């Protein structure tokens, strides 16, 4: 099972985050748990091949 590492921070009342591998794509949530759910959905979209031109930054 692959591990998707993400970075998150709080900006006022919103939680923002992005994946280390996909820093160009961000999500937000009203709580940390809400952000994590949005990030799960985003990761599924990014890795499914449904979004054309997704660029990943690999280490």
Structure description:
With 59 residues, this protein is an alpha+beta fold. The protein has one domain. It is built from 1 helix and 3 strands. The chain has one helix at residues 32-48, and strands at residues 6-11, 14-19, 26-29. A 3-stranded antiparallel β-sheet has the order 1-2-3, covered by helices on one side. A hairpin with a 2-residue loop joins β1 and β2 (14-19). It starts with 5 loop residues before the first strand and ends in an 11-residue tail after the last helix.
Keywords for this entry:
globular; three-stranded antiparallel beta sheet; alpha+beta; 59 residues; 3 strands
Largest sheet: 3 strands, antiparallel
Q: Which of globular, elongated, flat, extended, rod-shaped describes the shape?
A: globular
* Class computed from helices, strands and strand pairing: alpha+beta
Q: What's the Cα radius of gyration?
A: 12 Å
Tally of extended strands?
3
Please tell me the overall pLDDT: 93
Q: What is the helix tally?
A: 1
Number of domains: 1
Q: What topology, given as strand order, has the largest sheet? A: 1-2-3
- Helices and strands, in order, run as EEEH
Q: Detail the poorly predicted runs.
A: none
Oligomer classification? single chain
Assess the beta-strand content as a share of residues: 25-35%
Residue share in helix:
25-40%
């Amino acid at each position: 099972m692959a591990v998707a590492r993400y970075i998150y921070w709080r900006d006022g009342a919103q939680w923002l985050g992005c994946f280390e591998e996909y820093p160009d794509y961000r999500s937000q949530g009203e709580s940390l748990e809400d952000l994590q759910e949005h990030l799960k959905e985003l990761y599924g979209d990014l890795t499914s091949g449904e979004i054309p031109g997704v660029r990943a930054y690999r280490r």
